[in-house]
Amino acid sequence: MTRDVPSSVVVIGAGVVGATTALALAERGVEVTLVDRHRLAAADTSHANGGGVTPAHAEPWNAPGLLGKLVRNLGRADAPYRLAPTALPGMGLWGLRFLANMRRERFVHNARCNIRLGLYSLECLRQWRERYDLAYDQTLSGSMQVYFSREILAEAVQFRRELLQGWAPVEAVGVDEAIAREPALAPIRDRLAGAIVFPDHESGDARLFSQLAAETAGARGARLQFGQTIESIETEDGAFRAVVTDQGRIAADACVLAAGPDSAALARPLGLRLPIYPVRGYSATFEVEHSEHLPTLPMLDTASRFVTVRLGERKFRIAGLADFAGGKRTIESRRIDSLLAGARRLLPELSEVLRRERAELWAGLRPVTPDGVPLIDSTPVRGLYLNTGHGPMGWTMACGSAQLLAARLTGEPPAIEAQPYGLARL
Question: Model-level pTM greater than 0.85?
Fold first, then answer.
């Protein structure tokens, strides 16, 4: 390696983004230390997410019209997107930038940045799966967006095709074809308008994949230092020197901050104000004894904005909702009830299964930037890099983000344009 390329790197955060970053660096011969406060990888934001690897609809949340929805939905427990009034004072400049990126031209630009990264990431995921024979309860048969209005479906199909510009296949299907593709929808035939199918999409257990990625990185020489709380990032003369944990000091040539919603707090003492806001989401996971009624395709209910995903033979998950609530990880009972009620409307044959008392409930924080595009870049602190801010699309973008940043650290040309993910844009 040349003098400008770090020979040792500490990666902070062992979620799906941090674990894949460690693997990408270890493959390049870098001496990697992966550190996390939890005792297992993916114990936080990546623990029980929606499970979809869905680059063709990786657009940011701040679509045109979202502001009106947030205002109208104040206080509603069943609203897909909810703004807590108590969170407003803490949103400040981030909130203003979030609103500015709702303009259609900005939204389309940002969406295409995410889609390009997501498509590249899907390629990287497939390469790693084949190379290391990874099994993480994956499904490779595509995904489906379900619609209940023909007018909204027609608009969505046109918008999706314009947005994708032929980068990925999109299939608009009627009611009969939607049910043929996903028989679990048959009981709601009379309510359906049709669906959009994305045949290249996949799904899988992000937590399990993250743990496999960390283990694989360890097998390639990375040191896994879990159960260690980060106390500070040590610098000298404007350059990174070490990560200080409650169990000691980890010195290295460089550091990658991949701590999801905690990234901003870790960077702040260094004078870096990362524009990341934590948005809470929920999931409910069920163990199902008889799987014949479980959907096979990952689905997005476009009316209620939640996803369903089957993980393996007997595990089923519903995930969704977005609470702008100031970083609280609390599981709110009314939000879970809303999520489960929506799932029972979509899948009435599973009504007896989809009960709160049978669910493993989870709430996690998605690290959202004002434009909804992740930060994959160096920082003004020499030797400190970012791989964070992926919002609800960390699983979709993780493998590509890892490869993009690893290429940056080791002086390789990037496989896709890196500039859209830079810190300077914000």
Answer: yes
